[in-house]
Structure formats: C-alpha cells, structure tokens
Amino acid sequence: MSDSWKKRTKLVHGGVRRSQYNEVSEAIFLTQGFVYDSAEQAEARFLKTGPDEFIYARYGNPTVAMFENRIAALEGAEDGFATASGMAAVNGALVSGLKAGDHVVAARALFGSCLYILEDVLRRYGVEVTLVDGVDLDQWRGAVRAETKLVFFESISNPTLEVIDIAAVAEIAHAVGALVVVDNVFSTPVFSNAIALGADVVVYSATKHIDGQGRALGGVILGTREFIRGTVEPYMKHTGGAMSPFTAWIMLKGLETIDLRVHAQADSALKIATALQGHAKLARVIFPGLADHAQHGLCKVQMEKGGTVLSIDLKGGQEAAFRFLNALEIAVISNNLGDAKSIATHPATTTHQRLPAEQKVELGITPGLVRFSVGLEDADDLVADILNALEQA
Fold first, then answer.
1. Could you give the CA distance from residue 385 to residue 387 in angstroms, rounded to a whole number?
2. Does residue 355 surpass a pLDDT of 80?
3. How would you classify the pairing of strands 282-286 and 219-223?
4. Contact 74, 259 (CB under 8 A)
5. What homologous superfamily is domain 259-392 in, according to CATH?
6. Taking residues 127-154, what's their average pLDDT?
7. Residues 20-32: pLDDT tens digits?
8. DSSP per position, 172-218
9. At a CB cut-off of 8 Å and minimum separation 6, what does 193 contact?
10. DSSP state of 163
C-alpha cells in the first residue's frame, strides 16, 4: 500500500492479504489455530524468533490483521489491536498499562460503561481517578500532576456533544509524560485527526460507523507499535478480548463504504439540526456543526464536519420525550449510533440510566434529552418525521 494513496483508496485496498487463490474480496479465515511444518517452527513462532506468523486466533488471525492494518493506515497509527467490542477496546486501552497506585485524569462526560471502568473497576484495583469538566482546560491543568500516568476522554462527549480540545489536553498531559487515550467514536475514523493532534492512543467502537449497518459488535485500539504489541496485546490475548475473524471481515466490508456513508450522514445531520433550530417545543438543539455550538470553531479544526449525531432537549421533559419517540415513523428507538438507519435514544433512561440524578444534571442529561443518530435515509424525510413527532410531543 502506498503512503500517497488518498483516504478512500486506503479504505478499499489497505492491508489486503491474499491467499494462493488471489480472491478479490478478502478471505475469512475461520480457524482458531494454525498448523506448523515442524516442532522447531512452532517453537520459533512462540519465541518470536522466526517470521511473524499466526499462532492462535486469540493472538491474531489473517482476516483480523487485515482489518487492523487497514484502520491503522486510515487513522495514521503505527498499529492496531482489534477487540470483541468497543468496551473491550476501552477496557484494554485503559487497564493494560495501569497498576495500583497510578493516577488517571478523565473527562466526566462519558458513556456510562466508560464511567463504570473508571469509577468502579480501576478504583477497585487501587488506581486513583480524577474526573474533570472536559472542555475546561484549567481543570485539566489543575488535575494533571507529576505522577499522572494517563488521561482519557471522548473527543465528542456522549450524549451532550461537547467537543474537547485534543491538542490542548495532549500538551498538558505530555508535559508530565502521561499517555493520551481518546475515545473517538463520535468523530468517526473519517473525520478524525486525533493522532495528528497529539493523541497517543485512539479507541473506536467498530460497532458504530465502521460496521455502520447494525450487524456486529467490535472495537479497535490504535497507537504506536510499541504500545499495541508491548502493552495491549499481552493483556488482550491472555484475557480473551480479541475480535472474531467473521466480525473482522464485516468490518473490512464496512470500511470500504464508511467515507461515503459518514459524509452523507453528517450533511443530513446539519440539515436536520438547522431545520430544528428555534422550534417552540425544544429547549435546545445540540450539534457541533451549528454556529451557535460552544465549540463550533474547534469542531471545524478537529474534524471538518459536525458529525452524524445531534441531540434535542424537549421542554416537556421525559413525558414529552417519550411521546416524541413513540411518534417517530422512520427513525427507530434503539441505543446504537452510526447506523444506516436513523436511531433515537433517550439517554436518561437507557445508556446513562445508572448514573445518579445529580450526576445527570451535572452532565446536562435532562429528562427531555433525546440523542438522534442520523442514518442514510433522505434528509427531507427525516426532517418531516421529526417535525411531525414534535407536534405530537
């Protein structure tokens, strides 16, 4: 693969490994193990003194390696490790390099399961965790200290869509030698500039835009070869969080069209958000692509477009939000995002329901908040569907 290839070319051809049959579509190597020509060859592979070949599917697989290489090339990372789910990727990126007594600083506006790893799992095993307002750089400066080992945040927070300044936080963290880990799901691999802006490790839930069609769970951790193979791989291969070959093949197929899909979804999201501004039944419309978003300028610098997700806050609270959701005819009610189908979610009672009421208030997750992931339907149809549902709210 040539380094001069443009993004769409890398998404179609990057990382391909062809068998002796020279297939056009990538092969699915549905095998849990591999045969050695001799006992000496088996020993060499386990000792890693021979050619870098495959040993066991939990350690690596040709189809999985193709996905890892392709997404790494797209992201501008040296290497990647594909995982069984997005949360397996978050867990692997955080836990693999930490030990009791280490200090972590993280943005508090995170997906509920990410908060669980930080507040329950890491603290349970002796890691000190400090949570900050991710958009307040003074809070990052005040929380990061000499012994801080790692900082973690979502580049765009879920579900209130705050945009965090990757370059600025990375500068603060790197000043004390801390690793910068970014969950980049809402930015998507297409609009991502996280590594160029200073992130050391980028995490994706491949379940979202990478698959993009609601078929499979998956995740990936991207970073330097030293971190991926020296820190992440030993932890992941022994704890069993590896991606299956069939899932990797699905993700490879997803990458072939992700650029086209995400650009179309982002354009539709802007059209919908613009149409909803000032609606009498909405307290606010949150979309980084709108000029009135607090971090609109930063969004344009970091990711070109505003993304594929917007949030709306209905004035009538949960009762109005539920009436709105139940009145939608095109968008479905679910808790995924980045899908070909538009998906509406009520975070307060689903994805973030485990958070205490006061924490929801602090994060801006109100009873009337609805997260809307824009799909590939006609944008005008989606606007009409949302406006009709609002009338019934």
1. 6
2. yes
3. unpaired
4. no
5. Aspartate Aminotransferase, domain 1 (3.90.1150.10)
6. 98
7. 878 888 989 999 9
8. HHHTTT-EEEEE-TTTHHHH--TTTTT-SEEEEETTTTTT-SS----
9. 166, 302, 303
10. B
Q: Is 3 helix (H, G, I), strand (E, B) or coil?
A: coil
Q: Is the pLDDT of residue 52 over 70?
A: no
Give the model's confidence band at 1: pLDDT under 50 very low, under 70 low, under 90 confident, else very high. low
CA distance 80 to 70: 9
Q: Element (H or E) spanning 41, and its range? A: helix 39-47
Q: Does this chain's domain 7-254 share its CATH topology with 259-392?
A: no
What is the radius of gyration, based on Cα positions, of the chain? 21
Q: What is the pLDDT of residues 307-329, one digit of tens each?
A: 999 999 999 999 999 999 999 99
* Token pair listed for 167: 């370059």
Token code pair at residue 257: 């069209």
Across 384-393, average pLDDT: 96
> pLDDT digit string (tens) for 359-385?
888 889 999 999 999 999 999 999 999
**Distances in whole angstroms, Cα of residue 12 to Cα of each of 26, 78, 180, 281, 392:** 10, 19, 29, 44, 44
Q: What is the pLDDT of residue 24?
A: 86
Global pTM exceeds 0.90: yes
The architecture (CATH level 2) of 7-254 comes to 3-Layer(aba) Sandwich (3.40)
Are 185 and 219 a contacting pair, CB within 8 Å?
Answer: no
Classify 148 as helix, strand or coil.
strand
* Closest by Cα among 327, 340, 341 to 389: 327
Domains of the chain, residue spans: 7-254, 259-392
* H-run or E-run covering 139: helix 137-143
Pick the closest to residue 69 from 23, 25, 11, 20 (CA basis): 11
